[in-house]
Amino acid sequence: MEKSDSVHQRMDPANGGKEIKYMDDKTDKKMYLRKLHKNDARFMLEWMHDENVTSGLKKKFHLKTLEDCIGFIENSYKDDNSLHFAVADEGDIYMGTVSLKNIDREKRCAEFAIAMRSCAMGKGFSEYGMREIFRIGWEELGLNMIYWNVLKTNRRAIRFYEKMYLGSQSADFGVSRRGYTAKQGESLTWFVAYREKRI
Question: What pTM did the predictor assign?
Answer without folding.
Answer: 0.81
